[in-house]
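Cross-check.
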Amino acid sequence: MRYRYRNDDEMKDSGVEWLGRIPKEWGITKLKNHFEFEKGKNAALYTNDYIGLNEGDYPVYSGQTENNGVMGKINSYDYDLEKCIFTTTVGAKVMTPLLLKGKFNLSQNCLIMKGNNIFEEYIYYLLFPMFRYEKSLIPSYMQPSLRIDDLKKFYISYPYEKEQQKIALFLDKKTAEFDSIIEKKQSLITKLTEVKKSLISEVVTGKVKVLPPPSLPLAKGEETGGGWQVISRTDDEMKDSGVEWLGRIPKEWEVKRVRHIIKEPLKYGANESAELDDETLPRYIRITDFGDNGKLRNETFRSLEYKKAKEYFLENGDILFARSGATVGKTFQFKNYNGKACFAGYLIKASPNKEIIISDFMYSFTKTKNYENWKNSIFMQATIQNIGADKYKELKLCIPNSNEQQLIVDFLDEKTAKIDGTIEKIKLQIEKLKEAKQSLISEAVTGKIEVL
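Predicted model, tokenized:
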């Protein structure tokens, strides 16, 4: 489908800031003139426990955005609609719209919009730039939310119904093209992440031997000779570790529990609320402050008063373990941080004993498949996903001598940095594709472009 950009003399001022200029023949109306807004009829009833006890075929939508908002499926339904628009109403993913139809239920933190005398697919696309604008007005210190009263105040643009349909069909096609490219790039990130984890696992558990770059005569202008060598160890170089999820390890390596390789007992963090964001005070690190990339998020910065933080200060090389919830087992290495920092109660601090283990080596172990297998073995023994200090201290690692540890650390620094760099480039490409997609949606639903 083709399109063109409209000339300025074809446009008029809409009088609505987020819309800007729109085609002269388009109208402006309030959203409430074309929609009824409704929250779930039995929203509070649909908890995870209820869904588990009443499994069936009918989806329960909620404020979560994973799995297209579906918490689960039950054996009854509250709605049976030909078409409607769904949106989340609270939290970081507030104002995430979806098109729904058929039989379903609504849990909490969401609502539906039932239309009349308007093409829902067109409004669905129009909500993206409108919601984006509205979210930009919410101060960062406030929890984002969307109320029915807010929706009733919003203005929208609307062309004739035939053009609404044409715009929606155009965007269906174009957004599907964007989504297909984005999905392929996300799949590539998944594969690269798995390659990285496999590499770390093979090296840190000794399945392969790392040899340093050979000392070869340097060619003119060359700074290093050769590259790293990775050699699979033969079976006669290995022994049974005695630990199911570690498997066979090099004969000269030792198996040690965490409690034997740290310089002080594992320590729980401060049980204090995260209310301050004073950058002159120690940073207060929480589970939500770091991701799998090992970096602290600037946007979640919180601080703690010195008198409350002093017992929980972190030292360079300390490793934090998450102990409960969806992030249980996630780890963070406190390294090269410019300033003071302490840690929160849902985290457990391990301070590696440098005489036995290098912090980087210990942290790398927590990125292996073997560590994942250990976590899963813990979960199989418990009804709640929780790993406390009593279990972390018994975690077994296989450890080479300090020279080999450093060799492995140097090797992984170089190799994983290359993989991470590639992943970051792909992520940037994905963000640019998402921006281009949103820009095209905005230009189409506000009439900046005409679909031919």
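The CA atoms of residues 358 and 406 lie 7 Å apart. Residues 254-399 form a domain with the Adenine-n6-DNA-methyltransferase TaqI; Chain A, domain 2 fold (CATH 3.90.220.20). Passed to J.P. for a second look.
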